[in-house]
Amino acid sequence: MTAIRPDEALAQAYDGITAVVGGLDDAGLQRATRCRGWLIADLLLHVLGDAQRALVTLASPVDGPADVDDVSYWRDFPGDDDEAVGHAWWVRRSAAAFDRPSGIVGLWRDTAPAAVRAATSADPEGYVTTQGHVLRVPDFLATLTTEAAVHHLDLTLELPDAPPPGPLAVQVAVATMDGLLSDDTVRPAAWDDNDFLLKATGRVPLTDRDRLELGESAGWFPLLG
Q1: DSSP 4
Q2: Nearest Cα to 74, choosing from 21, 124, 142, 26?
Q3: Which intervals hold domain Mycothiol-dependent maleylpyruvate isomerase metal-binding (predicted)?
C-alpha cells in the first residue's frame, strides 16, 4: 500500500468540510450537529480554530524528541469535563458574535487552504509543539486530519445528501482509532469506516450485537470524545 502523504490527507479533510458547508445559507448553517449544543456554524468555528492553530504551530518548529505520536496524543482526551464544557460555551458565544453564520464560512475558506499550504511546506522530519505536547510534523498533521474527518461526520447529522469525508482523511482517522484499540480487537463485520468512526467516538452507541462481537474490547469505547 502506498503511504499517505499527511498534507494530502489534511487537504482532503479540509476540502471535505468546505464541500459540506460551502453551499449552505445562513439558515442551513444553523442546523444541528452531532456535537451536543452546537449548530453547524458553531462546529465550523471550532474546526476553524484547529486550522488557525495549525498555522501558528507549523510556523514555530521546536527541537525533538516527540513525547507523543498521532495515536498517543489522543489518550489525554476527552480530558477534564469542566474544561470541555467551558470550551463548548466559548465556541457558541464566539460564533454568535459574527453578524451572520456565513461569515464563519468565509473565514474558513481563507484559513483552511492556508493551513494546508503550511502543512505542505513544513519539514516532514521536523517537530512542533501543540496542546502541551511535542509531535513529529506528520503526526501533528494526522491529529488535525482525524479531528476534521470526525467533525465532517458531525456536520452532516441533518444533511443526508452531504458528501462524506474523503477516503484519505477517513483512512488516517480509522488508523488512529485502530491504534487506540488493543491489537487483538476485531471490528464488527457490519461496520463500515464511517460507522467505526461514529461508534469509536461515542457519536453512535454500541448495540448489544456490537458488544457481543467486540467482547472485552467494548469497554474501551468510546475511544475518544
Answers
A1: P
A2: 142
A3: 11-155
